[in-house]
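Protocol step 4 of 5: obtain the predicted structure for the target chain.
Materials: sequence only (see below). No template structures provided, no constraints applied. The aim of this step is simply to have a reference model before the mutagenesis design in step 5. Sequence pasted as it appears in the construct record:
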Amino acid sequence: MTVRHVRSGRKVNVPGKLPKILTVKGEPYLTTTIFVKYNYDDSSGTKQLTNITTAALPNGMLQARYNPDAHDTIWRAGRNAPSLGEEFRVRLVFARLKAKANWRVQTIPLSPEVFHWDD
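Step 4 output (structure tokens):
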């Protein structure tokens, strides 16, 4: 997927590094990226796992639906310093992705809480 967003007041349009279709040993595979974020509570001085967030990044073939332009985006600037020659990075904004397709972002609580799939 091409990353389209506004960074420091300028429109950014950077192609992703993964192909839309990956061919392995002559067989085509749809490129799928899943993010897993472990969320902790550290208010007591120790980190305690509270829940897990998963996000299914859309394939680049869905660019027009999920990130058609720099203003309609699921991304925000990452922690890199182009002035220092650091490689381009962005962050996926879970709330923006969830607003476009609720099922793509799930929060999984720890037991004994019950997990409910968001459609």
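Step 4 remarks: The first strand starts at residue 3 and ends at 7. The chain has a mean pLDDT of 93.
Proceed to step 5.
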